[in-house]
User: Fold this.
Amino acid sequence: MPRRDQHVSLAHGNGGRLMRELIEELFAPALENPLLDTRADAVAVPTPQDLELVVTTDGFTVQPLEFPGGNIGSLAVHGTVNDLAVCGALPHYLTVSTFLEEGLEIEVLRRAIAALAAAARACGVAVVAGDTKVLGRGDCDGIYLAATGLGFRPRGLRLALAEVRAGDRILVSGPVGDHGAAVLLARQEFGLRGDLKSDAASVLPEAQALLRVPGLRFMRDPTRGGLATVAHELARASGLRVQLAESSIPVNDAVQSVCELLGYDPLYLACEGRVVAVVAPESCPAALGELRKVAPGAALIGELQAGSAQVVLETSFGGQRVLDELEDDPLPRIC
Amino acid sequence: MPRRDQHVSLAHGNGGRLMRELIEELFAPALENPLLDTRADAVAVPTPQDLELVVTTDGFTVQPLEFPGGNIGSLAVHGTVNDLAVCGALPHYLTVSTFLEEGLEIEVLRRAIAALAAAARACGVAVVAGDTKVLGRGDCDGIYLAATGLGFRPRGLRLALAEVRAGDRILVSGPVGDHGAAVLLARQEFGLRGDLKSDAASVLPEAQALLRVPGLRFMRDPTRGGLATVAHELARASGLRVQLAESSIPVNDAVQSVCELLGYDPLYLACEGRVVAVVAPESCPAALGELRKVAPGAALIGELQAGSAQVVLETSFGGQRVLDELEDDPLPRIC
Assistant:
C-alpha cells in the first residue's frame, strides 16, 4: 500500500473525497462536540434566555505559524474569545474558516487544529461550523484562519468607548508587547535569540474579575497597534487627553531589550493576553484589587483628562511626550 | 498635496491610521447599518424570541475576483445566505473577515465591498462585524473573504440528511454548472470566449417556497463538487441508491459546450444559486409547483431507492452509469 501523501493538495479543497476525508479524519475528531455536524450546511445552537447575543470576527495570518507560547490555532481562539470577553460576554460558539496552501505539511495543520481545539475547550467554547479552502502554492503562506465568536452577556451592560469620562483611570492587566516581540524574534530575521514568550491567552478571567466592579466603563485587548493604539481610540472617542505614566506601564526586560535592539516601541507592539480597562476614579482601588487576584502584574497606568484629544506619555525622566497614532510602520502578520 | 496611493499597503493592516481610514472611508459607509460599530470589538445583536439561532461559515477565494454574474463580494453574501436558507433559516446577520494582498488596487476592493453591501441589502442581512488583514505581495492573491452567517428558523424544523427515505424524490431548482463554467471561462486560460453567466444568487425564494410543502426532507445548495457531490452525500448518509435521470437534469447549452471542450462534467461543476431538495413522493407535485413559482426551470431529476449506497445516472441513451465521488480533480478557487 502506498503511504498517502502527507501534504495538502488542491484536491483537498474540491468538495470531493479528499476534502471529506480531511474533515472527517483531522478536523472533526479534534473539534468534536455535540453541536458540530460537519455534514450540515449550518447548525442550530441554543441561545440562553434573557441574555444578549454578542458577535465578533477576526482573521489570523501570524508568521511563523508556530511561535513560543502558541500557534495560529490557539491564537485564533484566544483572539476571538478575548474580543467577546472585553465586551462583557461569555463566549459560547466559534466558527472557523481555514485557508490552506497547497504543499503544506498535514502535520503542521494537525498541530494547529489540535491547539485550536485545546484552547477552545479550555475557554468553554464549541466550534460549531467550519470551512476549508485550498489555495495554489504561492497564493497563501501556510495557513490563514478566520474565526467568528458568539457569546452572551447580561442585557443592558453599559460598556463602551462612549462611557468614558474625564478623571477615569486606565489599568492594564500585565506587561505589554510580549506577543509582538516574541513573534518578531521567532521570525529569526534579525539573528537574535531569546527566550521571549508570547502572552497569548484568554483574558476571560481578567474581564470577568473587572465586571464585578460597578465603575467599569470600558475594556479592550491591545492587539495590533498595542497599548498606544487603544489609548488613541480612547482619546479619539472621548475627545479627552489620555495621560499615561511610562514608569507605571509594565514592560518585561526581555521585551524592552528586543525593542531597543530592533527600534520598536513596546507601547505599539501587540499583546494577545492583556486587557486595558477604564474605570471610574472611585472604583480604581476595587478594580485593581479584583484584577490582581487573577493578574498579579496588573497596574494603574494613567487617566483621562480634560484637554484636547491626544495621548501624552509622562516619561520616566519626568518629561512629556506626545504618542502619535501608528503610521506607516507595517508590522505585518503579527496576529 | 500628493495624491494618495490607490493601492493596499501593509500599513493598511497594522491597526494604525491607514487601517482606521480604510475602515472608516471604504468599509463603514458601504456596509452602514444600525448594528455595525466599526470601533467595537464585538457587537450585540437582537435575537427573535421563539426562533432557533442557526450558524454557518464559508471562505471565498474565487479567481478571477470579478466574473460574469458577480464578484467575490456578492458571492460571499450569496454563498453564506444560501447555507442558511437551505437549513430553513432566514438570514439576519453576517460577519466578514477580509484578507488583502499588498498592492491590490483600492478600486477593486471598493467594487467587491459595494457588491457585498448590495447583495446583503437585497437579502435583508446586516453586516455586523468585520476584520481586515493585509498580506505581503505573493502571500495572498488579491482578496480572500471569510463570512459567517447567523439566521433564525422555527424551532423543531426537521430538515436533515437523516430525514431522507427510500422513495423520496429529488428536485433541482434550475440548470446546473453555470457558476463553475462561467468562472472557468472567465480565467481566459483556455482561449475560449462566451457569454456564460454565473448563476450566483440568493436561493432564499426557492428555499422559502419549498418550506411551505409538508413533505420536505432536506435541501442543499450544490456548490463545490456540484450536483454529483450532493448526490453522494445523500447516498452516504442514507445508505440508499441515488438514481438520477440525465435527460431530466437541466443543463444550459453553453455550459454543456464548455464542458465538452474542456473535459468537465456539468454534474460536478459548482452552482451558486441552485437548490437540490429531497421531498416525500406524495409531496413531489406540490413541491415542484411551489418551486416553479419562483424558479421556472426547476425539475424532478431522480429519486432515492433501496439498494447499496451509490449514485447511478440513467443516461439519455437508456444506459446506467455509476457516478464516482469527485477524486483528485483539483478545480481550485471556483468559489
Observations:
- Residues 19 and 313 of chain A are 53 Å apart (CA to CA).
- Chain A has two domains: 10-154, 161-322.
- The first helix of chain A runs from residue 17 to 31.
